[in-house]
Amino acid sequence: MVISWTLFVYSVVSSINLWPTKDQIQQALPFETRKNYPYVRVIVDCMEFEIEQPANPQTQQDTWSTYKNTSTAKGLVGITPNGIVSYISPLYGGATSGKAIINMDGSQSLIELLEDGDNIMSDRGFSLDSKYTHLTLIHPPFLDRQKQLSSQQVLQTRIIARHRIHVERCM
């Protein structure tokens, strides 16, 4: 009964188009975002929640999350710059990386919804495949070989964090 109800709710909710047009995003863009990142279309993060351990060993491996130290399901959530949920991905096993999920293509993928020139804001755990040259990923800078971030990089990290916090609050 619970599974039937869950499948029903999923079919209803997944048929709702949450994705706003580029014009709708631009019209509702908060001042701070417009000033710092005027082309941000979506702010993303992964959500992960515990599931019952699968019986199948391969599925156990696919769902094992080293971060949570248990079996999990993971999905990508996107919000508009003004804080409205605009994208929810299908769920994947907890072993799937955020990078892999954001680069998935297909009918329900974020990549399919984005248009030329769109910017995606994320944390450091995400990167775009090189084939997506028409998109820009905005994330805090990495240390690379530096011992510490420059003052400009620290400022950039803080600004991005102020925008990204809303996607974490939403989850």
Question: Any overview of this molecule?
Answer:
- With 171 residues, this protein is α/β, with parallel strands linked by helices.
- The chain has one domain.
- It is built from seven helices and seven strands.
- Strands 1, 2, 3, 4, 5, 6 and 7 form a seven-stranded mixed β-sheet that branches.
- A hairpin with a 4-residue loop joins strand 2 and strand 3.
- The mean pLDDT is 86.
In short:
With 171 residues, the protein is of the alpha/beta class. It is built from 7 helices and 7 strands; from the N terminus they run H-H-H-E-H-E-E-E-E-H-H-E-E-H. Strands 1, 2, 3, 4, 5, 6 and 7 form a 7-stranded mixed sheet that branches.
Note the topology.
Blueprint: H1 2-14, H2 22-27, H3 31-36, E1 40-50, H4 57-63, E2 64-65, E3 70-79, E4 85-88, E5 92-93, H5 98-102, H6 110-113, E6 119-121, E7 136-138, H7 151-170
InterPro entries: HARBI1_dom
GO molecular function: metal ion binding
Domain DDE Tnp4: 44-171
DSSP strand tally:
7
Q: Indicate the radius of gyration in whole angstroms.
A: 17 Å
In the residues, how many domains can be counted? 1
Overall pLDDT metric: 86
Please mark out the parts with pLDDT under 50 across 5 or more consecutive residues, or reply none.
none
Strand proportion, as a percent range, falls in 15-25%
For this entry, what is the oligomeric state of its chains?
single chain
Counting helices, strands and paired strands, the structural category is alpha/beta
- End-to-end span in angstroms? 27 Å
Residues in helices, as a percent range = 25-40%
Number of helices: 7
